[in-house]
Amino acid sequence: MADDFHKPAFFGGGEFEAFAGGEDPAAVMRAAHESARVLLARARDADDPHVVDRLVHYTDEHGIDALAELWARSGPHTLPGALWRIYLVRLMIRQDPGGIALLFQRGTEVLSTIDAVVAGAPTPAGPQEVTELADRILRGLFEGDFAIALERAAAFCRVEAAGASSVADDQDAASPERASELTTRALRLTTTADELAACARMSRAGTLD
């Protein structure tokens, strides 16, 4: 199967679906790791400048389901797990760029860390800026320093989590349900940030697979 991926790259739905196995957990895990390794290798080795574009925008055309079937069950500290989380972060941003931008801006106001700088978003960052940032981070996985891209994504999640937590505090009295939703989001983003940061360290150590 891997040999097929040395041919010229055309990333449509079939390339991901080709790895979809049955329900055998071992087969699913093998497919997840193999597909992640091969896709990264092809993107970095490709002469076609449109290959990375197709990977970045894959879910815009095909949805998230094919990637979910391949990678969603992968451990958080694995290569397919890291790719899956980056695609999910991008999807989160594209589904609500205005809301994400507001929370990111609040996060930059309440955090005293350099996470906003590491993430690479301009200040202020509106819906267009955070959408473009998501694409740049994902693109960095395929054609830049993999660990740096993971660190940028982790930093973005930390800023977003701080913003969600701060707004949740504001909403606690007037809208407790909204506050609870934002608190849950903040916890999930914090967890994702920790997972991506761990993957970045593993990538630098050469142990991320």
Largest sheet: none
Decide which structural class fits the backbone: mainly alpha
Q: Any idea what the shape is?
A: globular
Question: Mean pLDDT, rounded to whole units?
Answer: 88
Unreliable sequence segments: 1-15
The SSE string, one letter per element, is HHHHHHHHHHH
| Residues in helix, % | over 70%
Strand content: under 5%
Number of strands: 0
Output the radius of gyration. Answer: 18 Å
Task: Specify the number of helices.
Answer: 11
- Give the termini distance in whole angstroms: 18 Å
Count of distinct structural domains: 1
Please tell me about this protein's structure.
The protein has 209 residues and is mostly helical. The protein has one domain (2-205). The chain is built from 11 helices and no strands. It is globular. The two termini are 18 Å apart. Residues 1-15 have low confidence and may be disordered. One of its GO terms (cellular component) is DNA-directed RNA polymerase complex. This is DNA-directed RNA polymerase subunit beta.
Summarize, please.
The chain has helices spanning 13-17, 25-45, 50-56, 58-62, 65-71, 79-95, 97-110, 115-119, 127-143, 146-171, 176-205. It is mostly helical and 209 residues long.
Summarize the helices and strands and which ones pair or pack.
Elements: H1 13-17, H2 25-45, H3 50-56, H4 58-62, H5 65-71, H6 79-95, H7 97-110, H8 115-119, H9 127-143, H10 146-171, H11 176-205
Q: Which descriptors would you attach to this protein?
A:
209 residues, 11 helices, disordered N terminus, DNA-directed RNA polymerase, transcription, DNA-directed RNA polymerase subunit beta, mainly alpha, 74% helix
